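Dear support,

I submitted the protein below through the web form. The confirmation email said the job was done, but the results page showed an empty box. After a refresh the structure appeared. I'm attaching both so you can tell me whether what I see now is the final result or a partial one.
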Amino acid sequence: MILITPFVAIYGLIFIYPTLDMFMLSFQKAPLIGDGKWVGIDNYTRLGSDRKFDTAIWNTAYFVALSVVPGTFVALFISLGIYRLSGRVQAFVLALFFLPYILPVSVVYRIWDWTLNFQFGIAMHLFDWIGFDRIPIFKVTGWFMPAVALVTIWWTAGFSILLFLAGLRAIPAEIYEASALDNASRWQTFRKITWPLLWPVTALVLTIQLISQLKIFDQVYLFSTGGRPNDNLVMVYYIFQRAFVNNHGGRAAAIAMVLFIIVIVVSVLNFQLMRFVEKKQ
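What the results page shows now:
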């Protein structure tokens, strides 16, 4: 008991207490800092008629659909290719794919702004050479979320690739040798051996990606600069606007509690779905 007391104390101080304080703040009409007036569930009921909240919910769900499953399978197929390499070549290629993951988001933003900027982006010069019209990708609502999802997959794939490689290396080589003796094709080997044995890692990657992308903020905030930020709202970005721009601490806390519940519910449902699929295999 004595050994876990420091952990419990720190956990309560940096997580439990702020969560309870935010929960209480969500029932008040209050600034971000300072006393407020108790209004009950008014902050929650107002969300039903808040168009920006609807936009934030939709954009967050849309971004999750664009990034979680595609990003997981992109990382899986890249890891399968890297796994076939060996020695320094494998280490070099893995480092190339992992390098973006260690970059801060400001550097990622600058790289892709240089690439896709409407006026001087490298991709726009390529469009000119091919004969396509230039597209202000981060200024057009229909292009914004797919572009940010692409950037996010490129940025975060390295960690998922490492997890998949660890899972691949844990599969005994004898199983593959036995499948080769049975003249199994590559597709049969993948479908009957690799995929079932790699499923726990796949479920882990999907869960990590799901929780992470539900809380997206940095990329949307940076790439919305000079564009139409209200059309590109996601949940955390809307919380930021309410709390730090409008100084509506109570309403921001209510939105944060909704997001907190969504993350918990979606994570539990995803975990149960993964267990169900694993039993069916």
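Response: this is the final, complete result; the empty box was a page-load delay. The CA atoms of residues 74 and 208 lie 15 Å apart.
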